[in-house]
Design goal:
By secondary structure, the chain is an alpha/beta fold. It has helices spanning 6-13, 56-61, 75-78, 94-108, 125-137, 154-159, 180-188, 203-206, 209-217, 236-239, 293-305, 310-318, 346-357, 378-392, 402-411, 426-436, 454-463; strands at 4-5, 16-18, 25-26, 28-30, 40-43, 66-70, 88-91, 115-120, 142-144, 168-172, 192-195, 228-232, 249-254, 261-268, 273-277, 281-285, 328-332, 335-340, 364-369, 396-400, 421-423, 442-446, 468-469. It has 17 helices and 23 strands. A nine-stranded mixed β-sheet has the order 9-10-8-11-12-13-14-15-16, with helices on both faces. It has a seven-stranded mixed β-sheet with strand order 21-20-19-22-18-17-23, sandwiched between helices. It has a five-stranded mixed β-sheet with strand order 2-7-6-5-4. α10 (236-239) links the parallel β12 and β13.
Length: 471
Amino acid sequence: MIEMSLRDVARAMGAGWVGKAADRRVCRVVIDSREVAPGDLFIAIRGDRFDGHDFVDQAVTHGAVACVVDARASVDRVDGGAGDGVVQLVVEDTIEALGALAAYYRKSVIPAATEVVAITGSNGKTTTKAMLHHVLAGSLPGHASVRSFNNNIGVPLTLLSCEAGDQFLIAEIGTNAPGEVAALAKMVAPDVVAITSIGEAHLEGLGGLAAIAQEKASLLRFVPAGGLAVVNVDEPEMARRLSAADDVIVTTVGCCDGADVVARAVATSLAQTVIEVDGQHRIELAMPGAYHAGNVAIVLTIARRFGLSTDVVAERLRSFVPQAGRTNVVTLDGLTLVDDAYNANPTSMAGAIDALAAEPSRRRVMVMGDMFELGERSGELHRAMIDRVCASGIEVLVVVGASLTKAAAARGEREDEPMPICFDDATAAVEALPTILRRGDCVWVKGSRAVGLERIIDRLQHQTQADAVVA
């Protein structure tokens, strides 16, 4: 973060003061009291499972220059026993105050020379962000959002991480309800945007594919004249909405022949995916998944804007390692495990199934968890995923969760197809899975985050001695 005066912070938030308003400086914004260091501003966030106001005392002890609290918190409660030495900035809502500070920081503090990139999409946005950061950071100073910081808390924290010498800042923007992309995009004010894909995700909040495309396309309205928009147009619903980018340089990418940058996977295995771009450039990823072709095309297009050559991009991507839970391939003692447990929707699940089916030289095990937020189409889409696995030739299907268990029961047993092995929850699956697996199996684990399939990953990794990480 570029240092700010506490008075400017308060002004940006529209905050009132409690305590002595000394001329203090803020060098970082933190929402976790355990991470507070001297010079930090601690913002107390109320969440479903915690209340940051309970930890103001700890933040002060660790050296916070001030704490941002909401009007519902009494002075006595958050004083921490430190008396006049504690400066409180009092606001109506601390999350809104965080957003207001980030918007001010973007407009008035981040240097004009820093190009801000915003990435959204139903699938691939976190991996594309991580790929782009890996590529750009090899040549230029800059930052990107950590993990999946893509909501009204994570996006402001990403903006506030920008430092004075940064030439790039990459923000990830997510949504599960109409209007969220636009609200975050207004705050980010991006110079460059990318839309990785659209698919059947968050149907409960967003509706059908057309509404999802409309929500993602709203990002295009916030790119200034002369800015760059890179859009995957493999889905026609997305291609129809490019007019939202007025006076913007639009580059389309995808597998379709009409795209400006055509990228297709020409070879794929658990160890490697080879992607051909525009019929002449070959880019290798040390991870499985033909569906990464569009992400690579986006990364290449944006990197070229920053002056990087195709050869440099290809060399950097060769060493890219995905984040935990996102197609990480781990070789254990007698077992190959694909950790794809971070999240899932029908489009990403179908891609995982196809990638596992392309590994015919060993027994393949698909561990599939429920997909959430699919609304009234949940039953239909869960049945479709089971059908896809059974038609793929994958030998073993393990399903975890109420929706998949119900879909499997409704489908019934069919001749010459694997009968799904069903578990109500991850706890039951964790206990039983070691008895189902055999030496030499290839196991792909994927489901929505709330299912908790990472517990299966942890159990298998602790139970066997890791030999190497292929990722």
